[in-house]
Design goal:
Layout lengths: L2 H20 L15 E5 L14 E5 H7 L4 H31 L1
Bound molecules: zinc ion (ZN).
Zinc ion binds next to strand 2.
């Protein structure tokens, strides 16, 4: 087994452990999701010193994981609703621009 395959297998194992420990509950919105709608997130982002140690991983639903990206968890929790609304507005603007450009 190559080191890359070994690392992938390890990540899969950690992922299963992180999901099982959380009961498939997203650490940010608190809702329970089926496994295929979950991701593993660094609780403390790498750039703030968060490590790849399994204790630094939490379960995140796909929307929260995408929204949180590299934000520090406390900041994300405090602003989750506002970030989601801002992102939806941005997406609407993007779609409107795409529509206008395709009508040219
Ligand atoms: Zn969530």
């Amino acid at each position: 087994m190559t080191p890359k395959q070994k690392s992938k297998r390890l990540r899969r194992k950690w992922r299963a452990i992180v999901y099982a420990k959380s009961g498939n509950r997203c650490a940010y919105c608190g809702q329970v999701f089926p496994t295929e709608q979950l991701s593993v997130d660094h609780f403390w982002p790498s750039f703030l010193g968060g490590t790849d140690d399994p204790v630094n991983f939490v379960t995140a639903c796909l929307p929260c994981g995408k929204l949180k990206a590299h934000l520090p968890p406390l900041f994300f929790r405090a602003h989750r609703e506002a970030l989601a609304a801002a992102m939806q507005d941005e997406q609407k603007r993007f779609v409107a621009v795409q529509r206008d450009e395709s009508n040219d």
